[in-house]
Design goal:
Blueprint (H helix, E strand, L loop, with lengths): L2 H10 L5 H13 L8 E2 L3 H7 L9 H16 L3 E5 L8 E4 L10
Antiparallel strand pairs: 1-3, 2-3
């Protein structure tokens, strides 16, 4: 699975805030390295767990913390929202791990 994707996160996205980095590293570890355009469609609760919150019984505060962690990932282009969440259906995020030096601040 995502060893190469995780290395890309470490190389290209090391300057992310802590929780954002944790979320992207988690996503990278479970996406397939061989996929030219990986995507994450796993549970939102698993991402809550990736930032060190209770994934078994997340609270609204946990989901707010996750939204704060996801915001820079989307703004900087590490993730794109390919499909919004719906009833009983998690969102699908496109994963974009490569980042040019000019994109880093």
């Amino acid at each position: 699975m995502g060893a190469s994707n995780a290395m890309a996160v470490s190389t290209y996205w090391a300057d992310l805030p802590g929780d954002s980095f944790k979320v992207l590293a988690y996503i990278a570890l479970i996406t397939m390295d061989r996929d030219p355009e990986p995507s994450y469609w796993g549970s939102t609760d698993a991402l809550v767990g990736a930032i060190g919150r209770d994934a078994d019984e997340p609270t609204e505060a946990d989901y707010r913390a996750l939204r704060r962690a996801l915001k820079p990932l989307v703004e900087l282009g590490a993730l794109s929202v390919d499909k919004r969440a719906g009833p009983g259906r998690p969102p699908v995020y496109g994963v974009h791990l490569l980042r040019s030096k000019s994109d880093r601040s």
